[in-house]
């Protein structure tokens, strides 16, 4: 199975990307204001000050940039910003804006004070990006009419609006664009306690009976991501309804997630396949990424972009100039004994 596009592959239950079902459920579970939003205390506090100050001045809120991994609540916060400002919201994405004309059409149709949410803003085309500079700073764009020597730039005034940009790769944003945002917030991964609060809130809205220990079991396997926590909750709910009495206890949650191949640390089949190959076939490494990908029957990009980030964050895998290496925690997690230092000289050497 190829895992390259998680958005079109809903079978990866711990994938951070949202599929159609996720979007529908998220719409129902999404908090409506900052008071309901769980976690991200620092960003919430700072954003609350920004929005309250803008309302007190009777002005449009500053442009906001939200960065962080998928599933942490960037879209939800953009909708809360619009709700707090009493403004409508327009939602689009960077990949959908491939020409400056696409962006000009969106900007020219905005109402005063409207919030424009631009997801994956780092994937916007360069011509559109350059047009956005002027739109954000001066609230106007120059629309080019005609081609060649006879082309004419017609200035188009825009009503004041708030751009909320979201990105999973803030480092790819050019400095001129990043500097035009009045507020930048980085979304952190959630703690298990915060995820338990998310799960309990979602369970109430979904009318699911869940015990505290059941919520803790799901939270511990949710990879620090609310979207994954909500997805696992739905899968465990299904299991509880079909094979138990409908109540999610720790035992029910553990059995359900075993069915879906999500282990106690949140690793799924792909994650464990990568670790198992690294440990059993290559003695813990170092091994090249391409070789490791062939060993697990996946594309190089799949291993690098889908499995590696979580394994590195969990301290189970490390990247070195010589290749990927397993950490002692990886051996312990899979219950294997690492080779002796003499058997694997320079195992972690760079």
TrEMBL record:
DNA binds at residues 300, 319, 324. Gene3D superfamilies: 1.10.8.60, P-loop containing nucleotide triphosphate hydrolases, Winged helix-like DNA-binding domain superfamily/Winged helix DNA-binding domain. Mg(2+) binds at residue 75. Its EC number is 3.6.4.-. One of its GO terms (cellular component) is Holliday junction resolvase complex. Residues 1-20 are annotated as: Disordered. It comes from the Bacteria. ATP binds at residues 29-30, 71, 74-76, 137-139, 180, 190, 227. Keywords: ATP-binding, Cytoplasm, DNA damage, DNA recombination, DNA repair, DNA-binding, Helicase, Hydrolase, Nucleotide-binding. Its main location: cytoplasm. Pfam families: AAA_lid_4 (PF17864), RuvB_N (PF05496), WHD_RuvB (PF05491). Residues 191-261 are annotated as: Small ATPAse domain (RuvB-S). It catalyses: ATP + H2O = ADP + phosphate + H(+). Residues 10-190 are annotated as: Large ATPase domain (RuvB-L). It is an enzyme of class 3 (hydrolase). InterPro entries: AAA+_ATPase, AAA_lid_4, DNA_helicase_Holl-junc_RuvB, P-loop_NTPase, RuvB-like_N, RuvB_wg_C, WH-like_DNA-bd_sf, WH_DNA-bd_sf. GO terms for biological process: DNA recombination; DNA repair. Residues 60-193 form the AAA+ ATPase domain. HAMAP family: DNA_HJ_migration_RuvB. The RuvA-RuvB-RuvC complex processes Holliday junction (HJ) DNA during genetic recombination and DNA repair, while the RuvA-RuvB complex plays an important role in the rescue of blocked DNA replication forks via replication fork reversal (RFR). RuvA specifically binds to HJ cruciform DNA, conferring on it an open structure. The RuvB hexamer acts as an ATP-dependent pump, pulling dsDNA into and through the RuvAB complex. RuvB forms 2 homohexamers on either side of HJ DNA bound by 1 or 2 RuvA tetramers; 4 subunits per hexamer contact DNA at a time. Belongs to the RuvB family. Has 3 domains, the large (RuvB-L) and small ATPase (RuvB-S) domains and the C-terminal head (RuvB-H) domain. The head domain binds DNA, while the ATPase domains jointly bind ATP, ADP or are empty depending on the state of the subunit in the translocation cycle. During a single DNA translocation step the structure of each domain remains the same, but their relative positions change. Homohexamer. Forms an RuvA(8)-RuvB(12)-Holliday junction (HJ) complex. HJ DNA is sandwiched between 2 RuvA tetramers; dsDNA enters through RuvA and exits via RuvB. An RuvB hexamer assembles on each DNA strand where it exits the tetramer. Each RuvB hexamer is contacted by two RuvA subunits (via domain III) on 2 adjacent RuvB subunits; this complex drives branch migration. In the full resolvosome a probable DNA-RuvA(4)-RuvB(12)-RuvC(2) complex forms which resolves the HJ. This is Holliday junction branch migration complex subunit RuvB. The gene is ruvB.
